[in-house]
Structure formats: structure tokens, C-alpha cells
Design brief:
Elements (H helix, E strand, L loop, with lengths): L1 E4 L2 E5 L6 H17 L5 H9 L5
């Protein structure tokens, strides 16, 4: 549903996500992270300094 003032749309109403939709979205985001191998502190520091000139 679009709310308008005259001929100009000023707001759009949409449904509120249900908890099940939000839960599915969170699982979809977390799934690739669960499959990734753990990262060491040394690797993180190497990535942080990658491309720096020392």
C-alpha cells in the first residue's frame, strides 16, 4: 500500500517479517560461516598488514 499526498507518493507500507522469516534469514547468513575453517591470529594480522610498506 502506498500513501500519497496529492499525486506524490510519500510512504510505502509493507508487511512485518514474521519470526520464522527472520530465523531463516539468520541461518542463511550463518551457514557459510559455519563451513569456513578457523582462522589464526597470525593470519588475521597478516591480512591486516597486507599491502603495507614497512
Amino acid at each position: 500500500m502506498i500513501i500519497s499526498r496529492g499525486n506524490d507518493p510519500i510512504a510505502k507500507l509493507s508487511r512485518v517479517r514474521k519470526d520464522s522469516d527472520l530465523t531463516a534469514l539468520i541461518e542463511e547468513v550463518r551457514a557459510p560461516r559455519a563451513r569456513a575453517k578457523p582462522v589464526t591470529t597470525e593470519e588475521i594480522l597478516a591480512w591486516k598488514h597486507e599491502g603495507h610498506r614497512f
